[in-house]
Amino acid sequence: LAVLYRDSNRSHEAIHEGEEAVRIAPENAAAHVTLGRCYFASGEEEKAASEYQSAMKLAPQDGEAYFALGQLRMLQHRTAQAEEYLREAIQLSPQLGPAYAALAQILMSEDKNSEARALLEKAVTLNAQDWQSQYELAVLLNQAGETARATDLLDKVVRVNPNFPGAHEQLAFGLLRRGDVQGATALAGKMIGDDPQGPEGHRIMALVLWKQRDYDASLAECAMALNGDQNSSAMQALQSIALWQAGRKKDAQTAFREAAKLEPKVASADVFCRLLLCDARDINIVSDFLHKNRWLLQPKPQD
Q1: Phi, psi (5° rounding) for residue 28?
Q2: What is the average per-residue pLDDT within 177-184?
Q3: Which residues contact 189 (CB under 8 A, 6 or more apart)?
Q4: Rounded to two decimals, what is the model's pTM?
Q5: Cβ–Cβ contacts within 10 Å for residue 148, how many?
Q6: Inter-residue contact 18 to 38 (CB < 8 Å)
Q7: Which of 58, 79, 61 is nearest to 70 (CA)?
Q8: In this structure, are residues 102 and 74 in contact, taking their beta carbons and an 8 Å threshold?
Q9: Which CA distances in Å does 194 have to 72, 180, 191, 200, 201?
Q10: Tell me: the pLDDT tens digits for 86-116?
């Protein structure tokens, strides 16, 4: 009953029933986990953590409480603790698919994509209906150039969640990587038509136009994309090089510094080209831009 109330956003009733479950069965670890999740849903994070810790003591060989506490620490940005609890959850409960997916999120944020990919593969194997993990795995596959498998996964995601713009954006990335500029343009146009303010379609269109060397139009799309998502390192990087190619050198350097705040390794040709989905025609342009501007990101000498 507590779970039903929690899932219906009736937090007061959920907590009441969860507390009653713990009162009736204080030695039941699952009851403590349930109450902890009810507390968490209502924003009472430390009460939630206390219930999870009680469950750990009652059932030290069950990974569920470790997983729940790992999720909580993730959302509190206590990453080291979150990783520790999630790894313990996987060790104790190897079939706990969501724990693999949560740990993968942490590792991707740390650019540990190889281990993250292995974890997402496991999460998808354990739950074929986990479209979020399928999507995250497809993103990594696209980045690695494995567009065929990424497309297969994304097609599954779109069938389950046809209005998810991230999946359509990744499908367009795959088209661009395969050189299908016309297909990517058509998909971007549809995305913009469906959601003119959404950043996803504008990100694709900005890349397409840059590859066509239409810098002014690309910059207009970059602006639209950044208006919807200020934290897109790809768009900041694209904006910097498009401004440079358009002859706006000072603006380009400002944008390049902003890109570095979001992606500290943006001065690396590998990273810059990954953000822009570079093909053979783009590499010399990127190399020249970085050669002339990477000094901007060097630390200032100490007095």
Answers
A1: -90, 110
A2: 92
A3: 201, 205
A4: 0.86
A5: 10
A6: yes
A7: 79
A8: yes
A9: 35, 21, 5, 11, 9
A10: 999 999 999 999 999 999 999 999 989 999 9
